[in-house]
Amino acid sequence: MRVALIGYGNVGKAFARLLGSKHSSYPFRIVAIHTARHGTAYDSRGLSLHPEFGAPAASIEEFLDRARADVAVEITTLNPEGGEPAVSHIKAALGRHIHVITANKGPIANAYAELSADAKMAQVEFRFESTVMDGTPIFNNVRNNLPGVKILGFTGVLNSTSKIVLAAMKRGLSLADGIKEAQTLGIAEADPSYDLEGWDAAAKAAAIANVLMDARATPSDVERRGIGDITPDDLIDLAQNHKTMIPIARGELAAGGLRLQVRPEVVDDTDLLAGASGSSNLLLLHTDLMGTIGIISINPGVDQTAYGLFSDLIDIAKSL
Ligand SMILES: NC(=O)c1ccc[n+]([C@@H]2O[C@H](COP(=O)([O-])OP(=O)(O)OC[C@H]3O[C@@H](n4cnc5c(N)ncnc54)[C@H](OP(=O)(O)O)[C@@H]3O)[C@@H](O)[C@H]2O)c1
């Protein structure tokens, strides 16, 4: 299968390495890559890990028409408010009957219903497993393993960068030091204020609600509080009382409809939610038939995000 990448940063490069390492079993080929500042590269025989970029395609439409790929992988920078330009990239691919995979939560958080309707109309697949838990299966898990189950709500520890920053501050370091740690791991958003102000987690909460609870939410519908006003002293005081502060995302069906929230909460050190430290993620799904189910990933990194894209790609290949 011929694959076109829109974006070639941390995730794109990890995905290209993974495809290279699995090529003998899964002969997928990256035939085109489009970036914002580095230009565009094409080779129908397959591009190397370090392709030579030429002049940038004039538009996403020109890129897709020249790439002639079976699958487009959208992995550009997150824009939590509106999801552009990724929404337009995905619409352009679906409009050309190209399957789409994305790790970019912006489009799922802002335009999931519209994009999945476009995919249905074009009779192609639209997959996004890596958008919320860095490749750990949530959406595929529910779709494949929980038929007939209704998701009533969720509780999630979903933003790694905020946790890494809080953990650094608990050790007496500054917020800026914590951001640097997350950037070294390649997990901070290009604009880390999206992590610290809760936008990343709000986008994930909206994405979960849209896909699993049939909501029409956007990140702006999420009651949101970031970690900007928390000080190292607050965290050190809490630690002395065996408590910790964690950014938690919640979704619940209340009397007035669906309520979505993201905010730092204080929990006991022994609380299940406190177990998701470092870059670990945890999601509890509250269901009608299966009680509460937990999914946890221990310190996932960019290679796991790449795996989520790969798993979606294999699924699409199997469906053809
Ligand atoms: N990193 C993670 O661990 C992780 C985990 C889960 C999900 N994600 C999501 O995956 C996506 C990519 O993350 P990343 O860490 O790879 O980001 P990144 O390193 O900042 O790379 C972003 C890439 O997108 C390109 N780009 C930006 N705007 C573009 C546009 N308008 N047209 C074409 N290309 C454009 C950039 O081009 P230039 O190279 O020219 O700047 C760059 O190649 C984000 O949406 C992020 O939220 C990341």
Q: What form results from the Cα inertia axes? A: globular
> Structurally, how many domains make up the residues?
2
Q: Would you identify the CATH architecture of the largest domain?
A: 2-Layer Sandwich
| N-C termini distance | 10 Å
The helix content is 25-40%
Radius of gyration (Å)? 20 Å
Strand content: 15-25%
What small molecules does this complex bind?
A: NADP nicotinamide-adenine-dinucleotide phosphate
- Mean pLDDT across the residues is 96
- In CATH, the topology of the largest domain is named Dihydrodipicolinate Reductase, domain 2
Describe what is shown at a glance.
By secondary structure, the protein is an alpha/beta fold. 39% of the residues lie in helices and 22% in strands. Residues 6-12, 34-38, 75-78, 85, 103-105, 130, 134, 186-187, 189-190, 302, 305 line the site of NADP nicotinamide-adenine-dinucleotide phosphate.
Describe, in plain words, how this protein is organized in 3D:
With 320 residues, the protein is α/β, with parallel strands linked by helices. The protein has 2 domains: 2-135 and 302-319, 3-Layer(aba) Sandwich (Rossmann fold), CATH 3.40.50.720; 144-297, 2-Layer Sandwich (Dihydrodipicolinate Reductase, domain 2). Helix content is 39%, strand content 22%. The strands form 2 sheets. The protein has a 6-stranded mixed β-sheet, sandwiched between helices. Strands 8-10-9-7-11-12 form a 6-stranded mixed β-sheet. Helix 4 runs parallel beside helix 10. It is globular and about 60 Å long. The model has no long low-confidence stretch (mean pLDDT 96). The structure holds NADP nicotinamide-adenine-dinucleotide phosphate.
